[in-house]
Amino acid sequence: MPLSTTEENYLKAIFSINGANDNRATNQLIAEKLGVNPASVTDMLRKLDEKRLIDYNRADGAKLTKEGFKQAVKTVRKHRLWETFLVNNMNFTWDEVHEVAEQLEHIQSDKLTDELDKFLGYPKFDPHGDPIPDANGKLAVVKSKPLPEAGVARKLKVVSVTDNSTAFLKYLDKQGIALNDSLVIKEVVDFDKSLLVELKGRKEVFLSKEAAGKILVD
Amino acid sequence: MPLSTTEENYLKAIFSINGANDNRATNQLIAEKLGVNPASVTDMLRKLDEKRLIDYNRADGAKLTKEGFKQAVKTVRKHRLWETFLVNNMNFTWDEVHEVAEQLEHIQSDKLTDELDKFLGYPKFDPHGDPIPDANGKLAVVKSKPLPEAGVARKLKVVSVTDNSTAFLKYLDKQGIALNDSLVIKEVVDFDKSLLVELKGRKEVFLSKEAAGKILVD
DNA sequence: AAATATAATTAGGTAAGCCTAAGTATTATT
DNA sequence: AATAATACTTAGGCTTACCTAATTATATTT
Ligand SMILES: [Mn+2]
Ligand SMILES: [Mn+2]
Ligand SMILES: [Mn+2]
Ligand SMILES: [Mn+2]
């Protein structure tokens, strides 16, 4: 039986919380990410556990099973392919795509997904620098770290952003920061950890610790 | 407030039953078209009436209001644009698109709809020969009639089909009948009203009354 | 260890959209 | 006009996915 839109969203949320380091997906983090009440999360996690899409218990939180992982990756694949399509072919900007992709990711047609992938030329990354899983679920592992954790005076490259909100992405646009831009941290302001950054060897901009933390570099 | 997927489907069903001649959309016809129970239809028609998207009463059935009509046309526009996209760009055949378009038609983004329209080159007709409403809701009126109502020995053109099921469309493929093909009725078999038809001035095929009735010609 | 804060669960509800079975209108037939 | 057939509505329920408020379990402080 196909998963409901809601089930897919829960699996995707758990997937993104687990992340690369298998972080514990707690009831509360999931509730926050999906904008629902923790009590509702309890219900759904039980249901997903019963369907063997996750393993759930109070101590370890929710962990995707093999099948749950497969389903989550499939939804992520669709999300990122559609975002790429919207930017590449529908004249959307990177701050406009997320909401629509949240809808498009639930379209059920393997043929469409794979044809879209082909049409786009099998892209490896989406407009936010996130890797796109291929038809077998394989996705590129990119080594990167939040900007504040990178060293001063080293030449860095913007690899991706961890906040896809319009507000944040428009802010980056305004600062003149885009994917693949090169930058160098010139100075870390001591009392608030904000960064003075040189962009593409020219412009210098200040970034708050909060904003910088959402920019992944390599 | 945006309409639910279900509400959109009801409006679309009423739209297609009303058709060009304003046929009465009865409880039963709607139930049949949507594959639900007539009792469920009663509930929903009440709700749509309260929302002023239709006028409903037992005698006249359901009739779209101005607003309901606008919404229905919008959904139809999306459905037909997506079908065109699937055939033109995603290597779908005309018998494969309907199901997927049933999902895609509910994606809410005017920008996407209009960009898609532009991307496709503002197509006037979908893969089944149905007219695609433009951004203002205007749609081409095509004069056509069911093949059995056309005269014998007149040169006709296939304009559209009224059954979008895979089964029927594959049958047409097999018979070698496609949109815009020219044909001539050579003979009407008296006892079962089946037709002997000459295709593109060459091949001759037999069509049952039932099949022919689903082919619109001009 | 006790007290307090935080996290998760339970209990009881709601709304949308569907169902079946039974009842009431309406229309068609005799 | 009476009867039968067809169409529609009502009544009562179900499932999914939510909610709030109250309770219980687990961590964290003191
Ligand atoms: Mn996104
Ligand atoms: Mn993205
Ligand atoms: Mn269709
Ligand atoms: Mn069509």
Task: Describe the structure concisely for a colleague.
The structure is a homodimer of 218-residue chains. With 218 residues, the first copy, chain A, is an alpha+beta fold.
Topology:
The structure is a homodimer of 218-residue chains.
Chain A: H1 5-18, H2 27-34, H3 38-50, E1 54-57, E2 61-64, H4 66-89, H5 97-104, H6 110-119, E3 145-146, E4 155-161, H7 166-175, E5 182-188, E6 195-199, E7 204-207, H8 209-212, E8 215-217
Antiparallel strand pairs in A: 1-2, 3-8, 4-5, 4-8, 5-6, 6-7
Residues 79, 83, 98, 101, 164 of chain A line the site of one manganese (II) ion.
Chain A binds a DNA duplex (30 and 30 nucleotides) through helix 3.
Describe this structure in words.
The structure is a homodimer of 218-residue chains. Chain A is an alpha+beta fold. Among the domains of chain A are: 5-64, Orthogonal Bundle (Arc Repressor Mutant, subunit A); 145-217, Ferrous iron transport protein A (FeoA) (SH3 type barrels, Roll). Helix content of chain A is 42%, strand content 17%. Chain A is built from eight helices and eight strands, in the order αααββαααββαβββαβ. Chain A has helices at residues 5-18, 27-34, 38-50, 66-89, 97-104, 110-119, 166-175, 209-212; strands at 54-57, 61-64, 145-146, 155-161, 182-188, 195-199, 204-207, 215-217. In chain A, strands 3-8-4-5-6-7 form a six-stranded antiparallel sheet. A two-stranded antiparallel sheet of chain A has the order 1-2. In chain A, helix 1 crosses helix 4 (66-89). Chain A is globular and about 55 Å long. Chain A starts with a helix and ends with a strand. The A-B interface holds A 86, 89-92, 96, 99-100, 103-104, 106-109, 111-112, 115-116, 119 and B 86, 89-92, 96, 99-100, 103-104, 106-109, 111-112, 115-116, 119. Bound molecules: manganese (II) ion (4 copies). One manganese (II) ion (MN) binds at residues 79, 83, 98, 101, 164 of chain B. Chain A binds a DNA duplex (30 and 30 nucleotides) through residues 4, 6, 26-28, 36-44, 47, 58-59.
